Protein backbone atom coordinates (compact mmCIF):
# COMPACT_ATOMS: atom_id res chain seq x y z
CA UNK A 1 0.00 0.00 0.00
CA UNK A 2 1.87 2.72 0.56
CA UNK A 3 0.63 4.26 -1.98
CA UNK A 4 -1.31 6.50 0.25
CA UNK A 5 1.85 8.37 0.94
CA UNK A 6 3.12 11.12 -1.31
CA UNK A 7 3.86 10.78 -4.99
CA UNK A 8 7.59 9.92 -4.78
CA UNK A 9 6.60 6.39 -3.80
CA UNK A 10 4.66 6.03 -7.04
CA UNK A 11 7.70 4.86 -8.96
CA UNK A 12 7.91 1.72 -6.82
CA UNK A 13 4.19 1.39 -6.24
CA UNK A 14 3.16 1.55 -9.86
CA UNK A 15 5.73 -1.07 -10.74
CA UNK A 16 4.27 -3.40 -8.14
CA UNK A 17 0.70 -2.83 -9.30
CA UNK A 18 1.25 -2.41 -13.03
CA UNK A 19 -0.26 -5.80 -13.79
CA UNK A 20 -2.69 -5.91 -10.86
CA UNK A 21 -6.03 -4.89 -12.35
CA UNK A 22 -9.05 -4.10 -10.25
CA UNK A 23 -12.09 -5.91 -11.55
CA UNK A 24 -14.10 -5.28 -8.40
CA UNK A 25 -17.83 -5.07 -8.94
CA UNK A 26 -20.16 -2.66 -7.23
CA UNK A 27 -21.51 -4.10 -4.00
CA UNK A 28 -25.13 -3.05 -3.46
CA UNK A 29 -25.68 -1.53 -0.01
CA UNK A 30 -29.24 -0.27 -0.59
CA UNK A 31 -31.42 0.63 -3.56
CA UNK A 32 -29.26 2.85 -5.74
CA UNK A 33 -26.31 2.86 -3.32
CA UNK A 34 -23.12 0.91 -4.02
CA UNK A 35 -19.60 0.52 -2.67
CA UNK A 36 -16.62 -0.47 -4.76
CA UNK A 37 -14.22 -2.13 -2.34
CA UNK A 38 -10.85 -2.70 -3.97
CA UNK A 39 -7.48 -4.27 -3.30
CA UNK A 40 -4.75 -1.97 -1.95
CA UNK A 41 -2.35 -3.64 -4.39
CA UNK A 42 -4.21 -2.92 -7.61
CA UNK A 43 -4.70 0.15 -9.78
CA UNK A 44 -7.55 1.52 -7.66
CA UNK A 45 -6.06 1.22 -4.11
CA UNK A 46 -8.80 3.14 -2.24
CA UNK A 47 -12.51 2.36 -2.08
CA UNK A 48 -15.18 4.37 -3.89
CA UNK A 49 -18.92 4.90 -3.52
CA UNK A 50 -21.73 5.35 -6.01
CA UNK A 51 -25.20 6.83 -5.46
CA UNK A 52 -27.69 6.45 -8.33
CA UNK A 53 -30.49 9.02 -8.16
CA UNK A 54 -33.51 9.65 -10.39
CA UNK A 55 -31.68 12.00 -12.73
CA UNK A 56 -28.00 11.60 -11.99
CA UNK A 57 -25.16 9.72 -10.30
CA UNK A 58 -22.93 10.85 -7.45
CA UNK A 59 -19.46 9.31 -7.03
CA UNK A 60 -17.50 9.40 -3.80
CA UNK A 61 -13.74 9.15 -4.48
CA UNK A 62 -12.32 8.02 -7.80
CA UNK A 63 -9.45 5.62 -7.03
CA UNK A 64 -5.70 5.99 -7.50
CA UNK A 65 -5.08 6.12 -11.25
CA UNK A 66 -6.89 7.13 -14.44
CA UNK A 67 -7.16 3.40 -15.14
CA UNK A 68 -8.78 2.94 -11.75
CA UNK A 69 -11.19 5.77 -12.56
CA UNK A 70 -12.06 4.14 -15.87
CA UNK A 71 -12.70 0.81 -14.17
CA UNK A 72 -14.99 2.62 -11.73
CA UNK A 73 -16.88 4.25 -14.59
CA UNK A 74 -17.26 0.85 -16.28
CA UNK A 75 -18.66 -0.57 -13.06
CA UNK A 76 -21.14 2.33 -12.87
CA UNK A 77 -22.22 1.69 -16.45
CA UNK A 78 -22.98 -1.91 -15.50
CA UNK A 79 -25.81 -0.65 -13.27
CA UNK A 80 -26.97 2.64 -14.85
CA UNK A 81 -26.60 4.82 -17.97
CA UNK A 82 -27.37 8.01 -16.00
CA UNK A 83 -24.82 10.84 -16.12
CA UNK A 84 -22.27 11.28 -13.32
CA UNK A 85 -22.99 14.84 -12.25
CA UNK A 86 -21.25 14.96 -8.87
CA UNK A 87 -17.89 13.70 -7.64
CA UNK A 88 -17.08 14.17 -3.96
CA UNK A 89 -13.45 13.75 -2.87
CA UNK A 90 -13.04 12.64 0.74
CA UNK A 91 -9.60 14.29 0.97
CA UNK A 92 -6.62 15.14 -1.20
CA UNK A 93 -4.50 11.96 -1.19
CA UNK A 94 -3.72 10.61 -4.67
CA UNK A 95 -5.31 7.20 -4.08
CA UNK A 96 -8.66 8.96 -3.67
CA UNK A 97 -8.51 11.65 -6.38
CA UNK A 98 -6.31 10.60 -9.29
CA UNK A 99 -9.27 9.09 -11.11
CA UNK A 100 -11.02 12.49 -11.15
CA UNK A 101 -10.03 13.21 -14.74
CA UNK A 102 -12.32 10.41 -15.93
CA UNK A 103 -15.28 12.39 -14.60
CA UNK A 104 -14.30 15.75 -16.08
CA UNK A 105 -17.90 16.72 -16.88
CA UNK A 106 -19.01 16.28 -13.26
CA UNK A 107 -18.98 18.89 -10.51
CA UNK A 108 -15.87 18.09 -8.43
CA UNK A 109 -16.57 18.75 -4.75
CA UNK A 110 -14.19 18.69 -1.80
CA UNK A 111 -13.15 20.65 1.22
CA UNK A 112 -11.27 23.91 0.81
CA UNK A 113 -8.28 22.28 2.54
CA UNK A 114 -8.37 19.33 0.14
CA UNK A 115 -8.32 21.68 -2.85
CA UNK A 116 -5.44 23.61 -1.26
CA UNK A 117 -3.40 20.44 -0.83
CA UNK A 118 -4.06 19.10 -4.31
CA UNK A 119 -2.82 22.41 -5.71
CA UNK A 120 0.07 23.00 -3.30
CA UNK A 121 1.27 19.45 -2.62
CA UNK A 122 -0.06 16.90 -5.09
CA UNK A 123 0.52 18.77 -8.34
CA UNK A 124 4.02 20.08 -7.45
CA UNK A 125 4.96 16.60 -6.22
CA UNK A 126 3.97 15.07 -9.54
CA UNK A 127 6.02 17.62 -11.46
CA UNK A 128 9.01 17.26 -9.14
CA UNK A 129 8.94 13.46 -9.23
CA UNK A 130 8.68 13.46 -13.00
CA UNK A 131 11.78 15.65 -13.32
CA UNK A 132 13.73 13.48 -10.88
CA UNK A 133 12.67 10.29 -12.66
CA UNK A 134 13.71 11.67 -16.04
CA UNK A 135 17.16 12.50 -14.64
CA UNK A 136 17.45 9.04 -13.10
CA UNK A 137 16.52 7.44 -16.42
CA UNK A 138 19.37 9.29 -18.12
CA UNK A 139 21.89 8.16 -15.49
CA UNK A 140 20.66 4.57 -15.54
CA UNK A 141 20.86 4.34 -19.31
CA UNK A 142 24.40 5.69 -19.25
CA UNK A 143 25.32 3.13 -16.59
CA UNK A 144 23.71 0.33 -18.59
CA UNK A 145 25.69 1.27 -21.69
CA UNK A 146 28.95 0.85 -19.73
CA UNK A 147 28.00 -2.23 -17.67
CA UNK A 148 29.17 -5.69 -18.77
CA UNK A 149 28.11 -7.83 -15.81
CA UNK A 150 24.89 -9.69 -16.80
CA UNK A 151 23.31 -9.55 -13.33
CA UNK A 152 23.97 -5.84 -12.94
CA UNK A 153 22.64 -5.22 -16.43
CA UNK A 154 19.42 -7.02 -15.53
CA UNK A 155 19.08 -4.89 -12.40
CA UNK A 156 19.67 -1.67 -14.32
CA UNK A 157 17.20 -2.71 -17.01
CA UNK A 158 14.55 -3.40 -14.39
CA UNK A 159 15.14 0.01 -12.79
CA UNK A 160 14.83 1.67 -16.19
CA UNK A 161 11.58 -0.19 -16.87
CA UNK A 162 10.15 0.81 -13.50
CA UNK A 163 10.87 4.46 -14.07
CA UNK A 164 9.56 4.31 -17.60
CA UNK A 165 6.30 2.85 -16.23
CA UNK A 166 6.05 5.84 -13.91
CA UNK A 167 6.70 8.34 -16.70
CA UNK A 168 4.03 6.66 -18.83
CA UNK A 169 1.63 6.97 -15.91
CA UNK A 170 2.54 10.62 -15.33
CA UNK A 171 1.95 11.43 -18.99
CA UNK A 172 -1.61 10.09 -18.72
CA UNK A 173 -2.42 11.82 -15.44
CA UNK A 174 -4.21 15.16 -15.39
CA UNK A 175 -4.58 16.17 -11.78
CA UNK A 176 -8.06 17.59 -11.23
CA UNK A 177 -8.65 19.37 -7.91
CA UNK A 178 -12.11 19.97 -6.45
CA UNK A 179 -13.75 22.95 -8.15
CA UNK A 180 -16.42 23.43 -5.50
CA UNK A 181 -14.42 23.92 -2.28
CA UNK A 182 -16.42 23.68 0.94
CA UNK A 183 -15.58 25.40 4.22
CA UNK A 184 -18.20 23.38 6.09
CA UNK A 185 -21.15 21.10 5.42
CA UNK A 186 -23.33 20.99 2.32
CA UNK A 187 -26.33 19.11 0.95
CA UNK A 188 -26.53 17.72 -2.58
CA UNK A 189 -30.11 17.19 -3.75
CA UNK A 190 -31.54 15.31 -6.69
CA UNK A 191 -35.31 15.61 -6.67
CA UNK A 192 -36.43 14.41 -3.25
CA UNK A 193 -33.16 12.60 -2.52
CA UNK A 194 -30.45 14.14 -0.35
CA UNK A 195 -26.82 13.44 0.43
CA UNK A 196 -25.06 15.37 3.17
CA UNK A 197 -21.40 16.29 2.77
CA UNK A 198 -20.04 16.63 6.30
CA UNK A 199 -16.86 18.07 7.72
CA UNK A 200 -16.63 16.38 11.13
CA UNK A 201 -13.18 17.64 12.07
CA UNK A 202 -9.54 16.94 11.28
CA UNK A 203 -8.31 13.37 11.33
CA UNK A 204 -6.55 11.54 8.52
CA UNK A 205 -5.93 15.04 7.11
CA UNK A 206 -7.28 18.48 8.01
CA UNK A 207 -9.65 18.33 5.04
CA UNK A 208 -11.53 15.05 5.48
CA UNK A 209 -15.21 14.99 4.58
CA UNK A 210 -17.77 12.19 4.73
CA UNK A 211 -20.91 11.57 2.68
CA UNK A 212 -23.99 10.74 4.75
CA UNK A 213 -27.16 9.24 3.31
CA UNK A 214 -29.69 9.52 6.16
CA UNK A 215 -32.52 7.74 4.35
CA UNK A 216 -30.36 4.66 3.82
CA UNK A 217 -28.36 5.04 7.06
CA UNK A 218 -25.10 4.78 5.12
CA UNK A 219 -21.89 6.78 5.48
CA UNK A 220 -19.01 6.90 3.02
CA UNK A 221 -16.26 7.82 5.46
CA UNK A 222 -13.19 8.01 3.21
CA UNK A 223 -9.96 8.58 5.13
CA UNK A 224 -11.73 9.05 8.47
CA UNK A 225 -12.22 5.28 8.82
CA UNK A 226 -9.73 2.46 8.23
CA UNK A 227 -11.45 -0.88 8.79
CA UNK A 228 -9.23 -3.46 10.52
CA UNK A 229 -6.13 -1.66 9.28
CA UNK A 230 -3.32 0.46 10.71
CA UNK A 231 -3.82 3.92 9.19
CA UNK A 232 -1.44 6.05 7.20
CA UNK A 233 -0.81 9.07 9.45
CA UNK A 234 1.61 11.12 7.37
CA UNK A 235 -0.80 14.07 7.30
CA UNK A 236 -2.89 13.09 10.32
CA UNK A 237 -4.04 14.93 13.42
CA UNK A 238 -4.16 12.03 15.85
CA UNK A 239 -5.85 13.63 18.85
CA UNK A 240 -8.38 15.47 16.70
CA UNK A 241 -9.06 12.20 14.88
CA UNK A 242 -10.31 10.63 18.10
CA UNK A 243 -12.84 13.44 18.49
CA UNK A 244 -13.83 13.29 14.83
CA UNK A 245 -14.58 9.57 15.05
CA UNK A 246 -16.79 10.31 18.04
CA UNK A 247 -18.82 12.69 15.87
CA UNK A 248 -18.96 10.12 13.08
CA UNK A 249 -20.43 7.60 15.51
CA UNK A 250 -23.18 10.06 16.46
CA UNK A 251 -24.68 9.81 12.97
CA UNK A 252 -27.76 7.62 12.63
CA UNK A 253 -26.08 5.10 10.35
CA UNK A 254 -25.68 1.35 10.14
CA UNK A 255 -23.19 0.89 7.28
CA UNK A 256 -19.85 2.69 7.11
CA UNK A 257 -17.73 2.48 3.96
CA UNK A 258 -14.06 3.04 4.81
CA UNK A 259 -11.39 4.46 2.58
CA UNK A 260 -9.56 1.16 3.01
CA UNK A 261 -10.97 -2.18 4.02
CA UNK A 262 -14.38 -3.86 3.85
CA UNK A 263 -17.70 -2.16 4.48
CA UNK A 264 -18.16 -1.95 8.24
CA UNK A 265 -20.71 -1.47 10.97
CA UNK A 266 -20.82 1.02 13.83
CA UNK A 267 -18.93 -1.57 15.87
CA UNK A 268 -16.09 -1.56 13.33
CA UNK A 269 -15.83 2.23 13.59
CA UNK A 270 -15.77 1.90 17.37
CA UNK A 271 -12.93 -0.62 17.07
CA UNK A 272 -10.92 1.83 14.99
CA UNK A 273 -11.59 4.56 17.54
CA UNK A 274 -10.43 2.20 20.29
CA UNK A 275 -7.21 1.59 18.34
CA UNK A 276 -6.40 5.30 18.37
CA UNK A 277 -7.38 5.61 22.03
CA UNK A 278 -5.22 2.61 22.96
CA UNK A 279 -2.32 4.04 20.96
CA UNK A 280 -2.62 7.26 22.94
CA UNK A 281 -2.76 5.27 26.19
CA UNK A 282 0.48 3.38 25.51
CA UNK A 283 2.40 6.39 24.20
CA UNK A 284 1.34 8.90 26.86
CA UNK A 285 3.30 7.33 29.78
CA UNK A 286 6.49 7.35 27.70
CA UNK A 287 5.97 11.04 26.96
CA UNK A 288 5.39 11.75 30.65
CA UNK A 289 8.64 9.93 31.55
CA UNK A 290 10.54 11.92 28.96
CA UNK A 291 11.47 8.85 26.88
CA UNK A 292 13.01 9.70 23.54
CA UNK A 293 11.25 9.13 20.23
CA UNK A 294 13.89 6.58 19.25
CA UNK A 295 13.35 4.67 22.48
CA UNK A 296 9.59 4.36 22.24
CA UNK A 297 9.72 3.53 18.53
CA UNK A 298 12.06 0.69 19.38
CA UNK A 299 10.26 -0.55 22.48
CA UNK A 300 6.53 -0.14 21.88
CA UNK A 301 4.81 -3.04 20.15
CA UNK A 302 1.36 -3.13 18.64
CA UNK A 303 -1.22 -4.38 21.16
CA UNK A 304 -2.26 -7.99 20.60
CA UNK A 305 -5.84 -6.89 19.96
CA UNK A 306 -4.71 -5.27 16.71
CA UNK A 307 -2.14 -7.84 15.58
CA UNK A 308 -4.41 -9.03 12.78
CA UNK A 309 -4.83 -5.55 11.32
CA UNK A 310 -3.44 -4.99 7.84
CA UNK A 311 -0.48 -2.68 7.16
CA UNK A 312 1.43 -3.57 10.34
CA UNK A 313 4.47 -1.80 8.89
CA UNK A 314 2.74 1.53 9.54
CA UNK A 315 2.59 1.08 13.31
CA UNK A 316 5.96 2.78 14.06
CA UNK A 317 4.83 5.90 12.20
CA UNK A 318 1.60 5.85 14.22
CA UNK A 319 3.65 5.77 17.43
CA UNK A 320 5.84 8.62 16.23
CA UNK A 321 2.92 10.83 15.22
CA UNK A 322 1.10 10.28 18.51
CA UNK A 323 4.33 10.95 20.42
CA UNK A 324 4.88 14.23 18.58
CA UNK A 325 1.38 15.50 19.34
CA UNK A 326 1.40 14.47 22.99
CA UNK A 327 4.87 15.88 23.55
CA UNK A 328 3.88 19.20 21.98
CA UNK A 329 0.98 19.45 24.42
CA UNK A 330 3.21 18.52 27.35
CA UNK A 331 5.83 21.12 26.48
CA UNK A 332 3.18 23.81 26.05
CA UNK A 333 1.82 23.07 29.53
CA UNK A 334 5.20 23.20 31.27
CA UNK A 335 6.71 26.40 32.66
CA UNK A 336 9.61 27.49 30.51
CA UNK A 337 12.86 25.79 31.46
CA UNK A 338 11.29 22.82 33.25
CA UNK A 339 11.79 20.24 30.52
CA UNK A 340 13.77 17.21 31.57
CA UNK A 341 17.17 16.67 30.04
CA UNK A 342 15.86 13.75 27.95
CA UNK A 343 12.97 15.88 26.68
CA UNK A 344 15.39 18.61 25.63
CA UNK A 345 17.37 16.04 23.64
CA UNK A 346 14.38 14.26 22.13
CA UNK A 347 13.02 15.52 18.81
Can you put this structure into words, describing what you see?
By secondary structure, this protein is α/β, with parallel strands linked by helices. The chain has two domains: 7-115 and 176-264, Ribonuclease Z/Hydroxyacylglutathione hydrolase-like (Metallo-beta-lactamase, Chain A); 275-345, no CATH class. It is 43% helix and 17% strand. The chain contains ten helices and twelve strands. It has a seven-stranded mixed beta sheet. A five-stranded mixed beta sheet has the order 8-9-10-11-12, covered by helices on one side. Strand 1 (27-30) and strand 2 (33-36) form a beta hairpin. Helix 6 (238-249) runs antiparallel to helix 7. The longest helix is centred in the middle third of the chain and has 35 residues, at 112-146. The protein is globular and about 70 Å long. It starts with 9 loop residues before the first helix and ends with a helix.
Key attributes of the depicted protein:
seven-stranded mixed beta sheet; 347 residues; alpha/beta; single chain; five-stranded mixed beta sheet; 2 domains; 17% strand; Metallo-beta-lactamase, Chain A
Amino acid sequence: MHSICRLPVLVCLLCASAHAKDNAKLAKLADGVYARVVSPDGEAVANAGVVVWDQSVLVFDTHFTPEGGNSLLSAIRSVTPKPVRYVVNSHWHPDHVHGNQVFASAQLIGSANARRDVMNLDLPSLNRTTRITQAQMKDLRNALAKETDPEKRRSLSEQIKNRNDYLQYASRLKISPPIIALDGNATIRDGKQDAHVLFLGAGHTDGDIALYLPAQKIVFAGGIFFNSAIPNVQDAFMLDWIQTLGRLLQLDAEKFVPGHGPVGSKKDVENFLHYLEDLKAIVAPAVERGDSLEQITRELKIPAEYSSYRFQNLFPSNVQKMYAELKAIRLQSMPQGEETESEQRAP
